[in-house]
Amino acid sequence: MSRLKNMMGAMVAGLFPQLRYAVRAYSSEGEDLILKRIFHAQEEGTYVDVGAHHPFRFSNTYLFYKMKWRGINIDPMPGSRKLFQKYRPLDTNLELGVSATRQELTYAIFNEPALSTFSADKIREYSSNPQYRVVRRQQVPTWPLADILDQYLGHTHIDFLTIDAEGLDMEVLRSNNWVKYRPRYVLVESQPLELTRIEDSELCLFMEEVGYRIFAKTYYTYFFKNIHTQ
């Protein structure tokens, strides 16, 4: 069997030589490859993924799971924990939303699950595109990020925190305890902004207030570095 697999691999490489140079990314914009460059010499680590969506689709953390890192995946989609438990059983997988206080909020579930959101503004924005629509709404429990970390992290060291909360990113950030939980890097998906206009960004100003500076950027995702990390 191994000989046959080697022969098939050689055949594919011969027909498509460009595949030899392909680099696999699971993130939507290659964020995991930037993170891999940042942590290239680190064999073990911890991540926290808020708005994790799926075990590997559009995932900033799955590449690291494959590298034997471990962490917490948080997503409010009803039924999402079952899928994470199947494909990411060594992580802590939580079916929760994140908000300023412990409460229940109405979660709008779109026909494209990646767009599902608590945000009324995002519901209007996404629904303006005729190919997207809300298929159902459901009450979902939400906790502050600090409460989740207090209960499930088990220690205070996080290598990177990634947030994709579909319009509620600032609420997620403000719900953290930035004295106790200070990831080395924080990734936040937000609206595109030219780097020359960073001083106009609520996100960037807030992150600077809590001791982080912009480090890198893709089209939608901002990377912030803890300036107090030695």
UniProtKB/TrEMBL annotation:
An annotated Gene Ontology molecular function: methyltransferase activity
Highest taxon, organism lineage: Bacteria
Keywords per UniProt: Methyltransferase, Transferase
Domain Methyltransferase FkbM: 49-214
Methyltransferase found in the keyword field: yes
Pfam name, any one: Methyltransf_21
A Gene Ontology biological process term: methylation
Signal peptide coordinates: none
GO CC terms in record: cytoplasm; plasma membrane
NCBIfam families tied to this protein: fkbM_fam (TIGR01444)
Protein name: FkbM family methyltransferase
